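Components:
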Amino acid sequence: MSAQPVLVLVPGVTGASADGAPFARADEAAAQLTVIDLGVTRGDGIFETVGVFDGAPQNLGPHLRRLARSAEMLELPAPDLGILEEAFALAVAEHEDVPELSVRVVMTRGDEGTGVPTAWIHARESADWSRERAGIRVSALSRGLPSTVVADSPWLLAGAKTLSYAGNMSAVREAKRRGDDDVLFVSTDGYALEGPTSTLLVRLGETFVTTPLSAGVLQGTCVASVFEMLAAAGRTTGEKLLTPAEVLASDGAWLLSSTRLVAPITHLDGQELPVDAELTARLLAHLRGA
Amino acid sequence: MSAQPVLVLVPGVTGASADGAPFARADEAAAQLTVIDLGVTRGDGIFETVGVFDGAPQNLGPHLRRLARSAEMLELPAPDLGILEEAFALAVAEHEDVPELSVRVVMTRGDEGTGVPTAWIHARESADWSRERAGIRVSALSRGLPSTVVADSPWLLAGAKTLSYAGNMSAVREAKRRGDDDVLFVSTDGYALEGPTSTLLVRLGETFVTTPLSAGVLQGTCVASVFEMLAAAGRTTGEKLLTPAEVLASDGAWLLSSTRLVAPITHLDGQELPVDAELTARLLAHLRGA
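Structure:
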């Protein structure tokens, strides 16, 4: 984490005719946001974190399309994905060459009263995930919400990737207090959902499943990639609601995310799961774009 | 809303020996926060909004103590309430004299990796709440969480006043889409909880009740003041879980908050409630500190 992070501000994120350039590099160590930005006063904004491996962004298109869906769910102005793509490329190009970059794309509702979103791209060297890629211990923790939340209560924004992550961060602290590394959220009606910053993948024999979007989870970009790879290898893939007990009884489970990529669950609430190191390595290589 | 807002930054919020002054006025129109402040990237921070009426802050002590409780729940460093009180006084003193000020006290987890919170006080003239103080139409909307969430899932931070308010803001947009002004959140087990930025007060004959803290609502500073006033007038006060139907069948209901103060609910999901304008005026005068 020694290389200098790169910040690109994107005043032209909504394509509106900004006075100057639609995006430009800025000083990442300097203050850039006001204290009335609704991103900070209300956690009212959206983001994506994109992995860049040996200079190549993985799933940038799906990430930007998910950002656009989040914007719709929050009734934010539609982001100009072309502008964001160019700004993203600038941030990556300006960053020192490192094997793994973690690039955050953020759009907030902007300064209160203006109706003008604030947006930026922030690229920095990824943390060293080698330990987690070998295996993680996971606590199953309630998310408090039923698996029917999307249909019942769309205003709760389940499935949108908002900046309001205080509860997610708190859940990870609870897992660490329990001696674990990460969290698998569980619905109040007893189904495994996703991690606070990751998607669940479960193997049931030669079938691989993830959580249905209807349960209020985020649409995973990694799991889509992994499903393509597995389908090409003749495996069945799909969505299925599973209980934590069914995850425990499965043939293996992973949490997928865009910079850590793939983390096999070795233990769920202290109980051991089978880990397939060879398959995990293949998933990792695929997600890394090798 | 023409008077100039006043910003006071509080680098000494944790009482740590900051290099310079523990707080100082800063340019509120200028950028003051970095893009790696966890307040914006994760909604990871806490806040209070305090009303100041004719120069007198209302319930500043209870607000700051609630901030300290929120800090504990989020495992943030404990804020130095004495420093915050002094910084608060400076912000109010520096603001042009207006009848009603809305003063926000914010503390975030700070720039990622530093462990040093960011804190500020932001004072601005309140919106004109005269219409809402005469009456509001309210939509009952599910919060998705059961009324047992505090006991079941403390990591979800129900009852802490965090910056992660995207869902609260979205619920208000849903209410407006329905032709209403505000929201009364309902638990998944069917109890009226609170508004997105307010506390519920209900009259049942000569008894006045609010939602039990155990249901995961924020401890209201206004309702404590109102209960003191009502108790002094010989009324019974207390906590009680009510269904929306019981609220509708009550002798009147209000949403209380620190700058709007008191808003009688005229309609809940389109159904009319009794409104006692005289009592509402007395509650308003009491909360305004008259």
